[in-house]
Amino acid sequence: MRAEWHQITGQSHATVPPHKAEQRFDALVYIPETRKVTEAQNQDLMAPITEKEVREAIAVLHRNKAGGVDSLNNDFYKDCEDVMVEVLVREFNNIQRGAPMPRSFGQGIVIPLRKKGDSPNPLDYRPITLLTTTYKLLAKVLATRLQDILLRIIGEAQQGFVRDRLMENAILIMQAALDKAYHNGAEGLDDAPGIAMLDFMKAYDTLDRNFLYLVLSKFGFGRQFVDLVRRMHSDTTAQYLVNGELSAEWEVKSGIRQGCPLAPLLFIVAAEILALAVQQDPHLEGIRENSFLD
Fold first, then answer.
1. Residue (of 146, 105, 109) closest to 232 by Cα position
2. Running DSSP on this structure, what letter comes out for residue 163?
3. Are the CB atoms for 161 and 265 separated by under 8 Å?
4. DSSP string across 198-214
5. Is 186 within the bounds of a domain?
6. For residues 272 and 156, is the Cβ–Cβ distance under 8 A?
């Protein structure tokens, strides 16, 4: 199990050398100023973390969940909230100002869950990563703050993980596209419309971290936030828990973190570059999102 997954998470999956990534990025994609983070938003994003925010993050924790490597699970923080909240606020603000993160923040315990079927391939298991609740509380505060920014930088075609958007809208968009194609008609097979449906294989695990940091910078996120995200993904390790036994620890060099409240938001920011590239490519014809998002 560990050996197979180490090939996925133990190395970078970058397809462009780091020193050429920005040049290639600028040649493919243009991000309008109206889609970039404003100075005021950057200031709000990195404002001092408050007791209210930490309490709100604790409030949404679910009980009876396994803890991370420190064994301090959700129940501990919910039961000891009044004692721990001041400690957490102080620790989170120190980290935000550049203090080193506890080593436990970078450690994860991976529990593989079998998907449907009876495949012997370890890569067909669904990895569930147990991170420390302390880390997840910090990530939750940042994820909540990030929601206001996502409404500005993420296009309407992306409905998942953005506040006030519904996945049902994606179905309506697809139906509108099919309806328009049907009524326009086609003279032959070459003119017949088609829909490309793409799936990212091991999406979270193979996202190149340097590409993520570049995308955040291009969208106008401040250096302090980009550095914080970088530190949250530095010196990360994992151990597999199988049949009650832990594997040896190995360094995780690729991807965003399974189980992290920030992970889905960081992923859709990175994936937005693909959406922009498709929309801006003059050689691609067809229905653009603005044609039917009325």
1. 105
2. T
3. yes
4. ---TTHHHH--HHHHHH
5. no
6. no
pLDDT digits (tens, 9 = 90+) for 93-124: 999 999 999 999 999 999 888 777 777 777 77
Rama region for 150: left / alpha / beta (φ>0; ψ in -120 to 50; rest): alpha
Where helices occur in 31-157 by DSSP H, the ranges are 39-45, 51-59, 74-79, 81-96, 133-153
CB 242 within 8 A of CB 122: no
d(Cα 262, Cα 45) in Å, to the nearest integer?
13
- In this structure, what token pair is assigned to residue 33? 């100023």
> How far is 71 from 218, CA to CA, in rounded Å?
38
CB burial readout 51-68, b (16+ within 10 A) else e: eebbeebbeebeeeeebb
Give the chain's domain count: 1
pLDDT tens digit sequence for 244-277: 899 899 999 999 998 999 999 999 999 999 989 9
The two structure tokens encoding residue 69 = 């490597």
pTM of the complete model: 0.88
| Amino acid letter, residue 67 | G
In a domain, 179, yes or no: no
What distance in Å separates the CA atoms of residue 8 and residue 144, rounded to the nearest whole number? 29
Owning domain of residue 281: 2-165+203-287
